Amino acid sequence: MNATELVTAAWSMATHAADVLALIPAAEPEPKGIDTEGVVGFFASKVAPILLAVLGVIFIGRASKGEISKVLTSSAIAIVGLAFIAGAATLFFVGDYLIDLIFE
Fold it and tell me: What is the pLDDT of residues 56-80, one digit of tens each?
């Protein structure tokens, strides 16, 4: 086998390998994590109004039956629950700010 045949064979193998590598799809980009802002926005815009509407219907139903004390108790519990949710959201944003401040 002379040098010309050797180069021709090597070139043929190299082009074949390049063709095979071209058929392999590129790797998908790595996921960046959970979009927490999107999740919070979804709950704030879609789920919370539905839950509040259900609570309103329950309160109106109880009030029409004359169970005013139960309505007031349930309303107070709901308001405290909303305060806890608002506090958790506030801590979420304050924590994000503190992490950005510390690790800059």
Answer: 888 888 888 888 888 888 888 888 8
Helices (H) and strands (E) in the chain, counts: 4, 0
Count of CA atoms in the C-beta half-sphere (13 A) of 67: 11
Task: Please tell me whether residue 35 adopts helix, strand or coil conformation.
Answer: coil
Residue 70's alpha-carbon distances to 40, 62, 79, 86, in angstroms, are 31, 7, 14, 24
The owner of tokens 């108790």 is 73
Q: Dig out the tokens for 60 from the structure.
A: 């109106």
Is the whole-model pTM more than 0.70?
no
Cα separation, 58 vs 71, in Å, equals: 9
CA distance 56 to 101: 41
